[in-house]
Specification:
The chain is α+β, with helices and mostly antiparallel strands. It has a single domain, classed as Glutaredoxin (3-Layer(aba) Sandwich), CATH 3.40.30.10. It contains 4 helices and 4 strands.
């Protein structure tokens, strides 16, 4: 999914969109090499194992697991991929932009 994720980061660079990664590779040094080789520019956390605190709290049992949160931090989509993912992001961005009296800014 790295190429698609890179394209999302680029496509929505000027929008209130943030991509976060959680990784459970056992070897952190190898993970760092992979992140560099794959040009991962977004924030990514190392959870050490699939039983780590992030995986456990967010009920991640398969990979990839994708959650899309809206401007209020509410999970609106889970496990959407490819074109459906792009459309879901676009929908959430439109909703955020249409909110009266609310100013949604990028945190990146």
């Amino acid at each position: 999914m790295y190429p698609h994720e890179r394209s999302l980061v680029k496509q929505f660079a000027d929008q209130p969109f943030v991509l976060l990664g959680i990784n459970s590779d056992s070897d952190r040094e190898e993970l760092k090499k992979t992140l560099q080789a794959e040009q991962i520019t977004w924030r990514s956390w190392w959870d050490q194992t699939i039983d780590g605190p992030i995986h456990t709290k967010w009920n991640v049992t398969v990979r990839p697991t994708i959650y899309l949160l809206d401007a209020d931090g509410v999970i609106r989509y889970k496990d959407v991929m490819d074109r459906e993912l792009d459309e879901a992001i676009a929908t959430l961005l439109k909703e955020a932009a249409a909110r009266p009296g609310k100013r949604v800014e990028s945190r990146e």
